Amino acid sequence: MLELTTTIIAAASDGDWPGWLLAAGPVGAASFYWAVWMAYRNTNKSHSYEHETEVVVSNMTGNDVKVGTNNGTRDRWIRGRNDDKPRQRL
Amino acid sequence: MSDPTSTPPQQPAAPPDPPAAAAAPEAAPLPQPIADALPEPGDVNTSNAKGDGLTKCPRCGSAEIGPVPGTDQLRCAFCRFEWVAANFMASVGFDSPIDQLQGTVRTTGVADIDQSASHIITIKCQGCGAEVVINTESQLQSRCHWCRQVLSQQTQIPNGAVPDAVLPFRLTHDQAVEAVRKFASRRRMFALKRFKQEFVPENVVGVYMPYLLVDGNAHGDVAGHGEIKTRQYQRGSDNNKTTYYDADVYQVTRSFDFTVDDLTIESSSARANQDTRMNTNNVINTILPFDTKNSVKYDANYMGDFTSERRDLDVDAVMPVARAQMLSIARQKATDSTRYDRGIRWESEQLELKGTRWVAVLLPVWLYSYYEKKSDGSAFLHYIAVNGRTGETMGSIPVSVPKLLLVALTIGTVLEGIAIAIVANF
Q1: Predicted structure pTM score
Q2: Measured by CB atoms within 10 angstroms of the end CB, which terminus of chain A is less buried, N or C?
Q3: CA angle in degrees (0–180, nearest 5) for B233-B239-B244
């Protein structure tokens, strides 16, 4: 379904033809299924220990050194962003 | 109300060592099995001096003691005297500053489990002399079937069943029933038909789940790159615009000390397995945290009608989990100390664990379970869990897949119909 959606969007981006709208059916059905499944089964839930544990930080040191620029990028976020995934090991 | 447990009984002064003791030759080493069963020299002794069997009311001597629903109190059913066991953390000095922790500090309640230890304990009733069997896998108390007095397993045994501390149930059965009913009633539409038919929230049961609490004194080092947006602009024709961004790139490093207080980790291997394809243990994990600061010294009389699960994981077994969670906390704290509007790509992380302090505790959970038998013959156990202190509720409701699929496809078809109409008229 994802491939079909990508294909349709790619084809639609060639011109003004709003063909991407044709993805609305499959995407809508899949999104609804996923949202209901998660609301019922809660398989993505766990204790948020990163935020809910009592932690005291001290002696914080560090640097923020400008090392260059990243101009003209189309990416909304830094490539490989992981500051929102603290459980992902490096 | 006064706390009788806080007043230590008057003990006769210990007799002085006989002079011969000083000159006695060094004691012979203990046989290996006995030496293994003894606590390690550095362990904080949390063993209970009450002794197994009858635990008597400090006022009237009755053994009919049980928890008072909705409170942390114990009550004698005979004379109605009420009291609270001593706060655990304060009683063993575990409320001391965590930033001074060095090495691994353990209590006797988290001692390594002897795999060969029996879970079946026989207690001799002091009331009538009968021998009563308790299966410590799920119980720490039993009633003598001859004289009807309640017998308790109070002392620590090497199979991990008896903890250091217990956090009493604060939420009553009625409140738990209401929480389960509310959770399930919001998810009725696509729930499995049999689940709805067999739904009896009154069947929710209180279980004391085993956890290890760990305090950690650590140092974290995290490094990576972050970006700050300097410009945002669009290129292209009116109908085909693309957004572009300019950003400054920074090298980011953070180095800091931090302390973690009462990180709570499952110490039952069955609950620690949180593979959501195989079980719904993650919903029990989600109802954490508990107000563990209010844990009291273990007293089997808090068990009442509740069951308990046995700890079967040692500190060494959960240490990797504790380290991983503390590293995640370090990452989060490092992120919290920055302001990069295009985010950060952390590239290295290190944790130096200077000291940890471990406590075995039983925490109160109300559990409603549903055993789903699937069409292929397999079975799946769903839980709705309610935190016995805060009331936080999380659960897994079995879904009627054909019904959900039908509605999802219907919605998809309607959306597709609208989309085709728009495209056709374009």
Answers
A1: 0.85
A2: N
A3: 20
pLDDT tens-place string over residues A57-71: 999 999 999 999 999
Q: Which tens digit of pLDDT belongs to each residue from B126-155? A: 889 889 988 888 889 888 988 988 898 888
> Rounded to the nearest 5 degrees, what angle is found at the Cα of B259, between the Cα atoms of B253 and B260?
110
Element (H, E) at B327: helix B315-336
Q: A74, B420: Cβ pair inside 8 Å?
A: no
Which A residues in the span 10-69 are in contact with B, Cβ-Cβ below 8 Å?
13, 16-19, 21-26, 28-30, 32-33, 36-37, 39-43, 45-47, 49-69
The single-letter code of the amino acid at B241 is: K
Cis peptide before B289 (omega within 30 of 0): yes
Beta carbons within 8 Å of A39's beta carbon, 6+ residues apart = B187
Contact (Cβ atoms closer than 8 angstroms) between residue B394 and residue A45: yes
Looking at this predicted complex, what is its ipTM? 0.82
Inspect the interface and report whether the beta carbons of A81 and B258 lie closer than 8 Å. no
Can you list the alpha helix ranges (DSSP code H) found in B105-241?
A: 173-185, 193-197
In angstroms, the CA B113 to CA B115 distance is 6
Residue range B362-383: mean pLDDT, rounded: 92
Taken as a whole, chain A contains a residue count of 90
Q: Identify the three-state secondary structure at position B416.
A: helix
Residues of B with CB below 8 A from A42's CB? Answer: 282-283, 286, 394-396
pLDDT digits (tens, 9 = 90+) for B161-213: 899 999 999 999 999 999 999 999 999 999 999 999 999 999 999 999 999 99
**Averaged over B316-328, what is the pLDDT?**
96
